[in-house]
Amino acid sequence: MRPGSALVTLWAAVLCAGAAGWLMYGRDAVLRRARMVLVGSRRPATVWEWGPGMWRGPVACGQALLAPLRERLGWRLGRELLCLPAGLLLALLAHSVLPALAGAVAVPLVGRQLRERARRMAVARRVTAVGTLCGTVAGDLRAGSPPHTALAGAIEDDGWPDAPELVDTARLLLAAARFGGDVPEALRAAARQEGAEGLAAVAACWQVAVDGGAGLAAGLDRIAAALRAERDQRDDLRAQLAGPRSTALMLALLPLFGVVLGAGLGADPVGTLLGTPTGLACLLAGGLLEWAGLAWTGRIVRSAEESW
């Protein structure tokens, strides 16, 4: 198949898929959802407004158009969708369908990496939030507040109900603190979330303070200090691992620099890699070696983080 006919076939497939999605999910529902996102409030909103937030309208419209697909298929699509237009652009420039296929294959892989990164960031925020909560509750207890009032006030003051990774925990603890529930049990239940394990120690201190009359503020201060020390050690480890990660990324990008350099010297490396059997074999072997190197480096870094 000629490159031109392959690209025509690809664009026809994309248009057919878009038309099918349009018919499947309903034109009126999609337009109504996009109109609600773009207009929102009572005052009319412009789709394009020059300034720092000029991309909010188009991004919100795109999210509204993809919302029915996420609701029906259970997908959580985000920035990984940028691989599709990038692959199509490279396909047009290289006159080959392979970059478009590679962009489609990269969507779930990039999405998994982004979700893993978001999970790690959420865990780190939970650890920091638990340490801050312990310090805030200890300060309120020393100021004379009852334990239940201090816990509920600290959760609200630290912004737990507004944080997506803490909202469920905040509801559980606020219900127990405000309505006379079993606070230690609620703390143990909340400690099952990754990154919130420090709440189990808070539950133990709370139960000892209630049953035996021990000082709760002193125990919370020790928990907060331990969590701060753990966070500092984790940050130091990440700083030490930043060098190997940067080196691995730079080495992984070197083949791309070689392709750009070859094109600048007058050669046609893209056409050779995508248009000849030898080039395709070299591209496949190089891609497998790149993946193996990145996977090996990532495993070494993860083992170092897990062993800490």
Search tags:
single chain; mainly alpha
Task: Note down, in words, how this protein is organized.
With 308 residues, the protein is mainly alpha-helical. The protein is 79% helix and 0% strand. The protein contains 12 helices and no strands. Helix 5 (98-142) runs antiparallel to helix 6, helix 9 (198-212) packs antiparallel against helix 10 and helix 11 packs across helix 12. The longest helix has 49 residues, at 216-264.
Secondary structure: elements and pairs:
Layout: H1 3-25, H2 27-39, H3 56-73, H4 83-94, H5 98-142, H6 147-157, H7 167-178, H8 183-190, H9 198-212, H10 216-264, H11 269-275, H12 277-307
Helix pairs in contact: 2-3, 4-5, 5-6, 5-10, 6-7, 7-8, 8-9, 9-10, 10-12, 11-12
Dominant shape: elongated
Assign a percent range to the helix content. Answer: over 70%
What is the rounded distance between the termini?
Answer: 54 Å
Helix-strand string = HHHHHHHHHHHH
The share of residues in extended strands comes to: under 5%
Radius of gyration: 27 Å
Number of helices: 12
Mean pLDDT: 77
Q: Residue ranges: pLDDT <50 for 5 or more in a row?
A: 1-8, 19-55
Give a quick account of the main beta sheet: strands, pairing sense, barrel closure: none
Total strands: the figure is: 0
InterPro entries: T2SS_GspF_dom
Protein name: Type II secretion system F family protein
Membrane topology: Multi-pass membrane protein
Keywords: Cell membrane, Membrane, Transmembrane, Transmembrane helix
